[in-house]
Write a structure and sequence with these properties.
Layout lengths: L7 H7 L4 H8 L3 H9 L6 H10 L19 H11 L4 H15 L15 H18 L5 H4 L8 E2 L7 H7 L2 H4 L3 E2 L9
Parallel strand pairs: 1-2
Helix pairs in contact: 2-3, 5-6, 6-7
Length: 189
């Protein structure tokens, strides 16, 4: 079973396009356009990508575990941090880390953190997502690849004697955003 989240009918209506016009423009068989409209199982990802690109969207295939509901997504934890206060970031971030390592559910990372969230928290979430995707050998979402370079370095441990270790040990996904952590930062006891 799959879920198809591409509002092609709405795009056709909004742009006043017919199936035939879209088919001719993209040089894709009209039957393929019809199959996309009907969300048939036999669709090729390349056909969907062509139509999505035409409307300024990207198409991605996301797999996820059965019977799993992602409640610790990058967007959800940023909103929880806003609600619970900035000091709660470690708890919510580690909930996301644990959930991803347990489920390998890429839906957790589909959407970026809330823009209302403090800049350094957005940078921390992006750095963490990039690190976890590298660890799992999967492609990270585009938003995590964007540089969120903080104007002031953030030494997460906030202990003066640990700063030198953080400078040496911090993974590239964190350093690129001017965040410095120790190599065991995302490990649990």
């Amino acid at each position: 079973m799959y879920h198809f989240y591409f509002p092609i009918k709405a795009f056709l209506k909004k742009n006043r396009l017919s199936e035939r016009a879209l088919s001719e423009t993209l040089q894709i068989a009209r039957g393929t356009i019809r199959s996309i409209l009907l969300k048939k199982d036999s669709l090729s990802l390349n056909s969907i990508k062509s139509v999505a690109n035409y409307f300024g969207h990207e198409a991605s295939l996301v797999t996820y575990p059965k019977n799993h509901r992602p409640e610790s997504s990058s967007l959800a934890i940023s909103m929880k941090i806003q609600k619970d206060g900035v000091d709660s970031w470690k708890i919510h971030l580690m909930d996301m880390v644990d959930e991803f390592r347990k489920s390998l559910d890429m839906r957790l990372f589909l959407l970026p953190p809330s823009q209302e969230c403090p800049e350094r928290i957005q940078a921390m979430i992006a750095s963490t997502v990039l690190f976890l995707c590298q660890e799992a050998d999967v492609t990270a979402p585009d938003w995590a690849h964007e540089v969120h370079y903080l104007s002031q370095p953030w030494f997460v441990a906030e202990v003066e004697s640990l700063k030198a270790f953080a400078l040496l040990e911090s993974p590239l996904s964190f350093r690129r955003n001017n965040i410095f952590v120790q190599n065991n930062f995302l490990e649990r006891a």
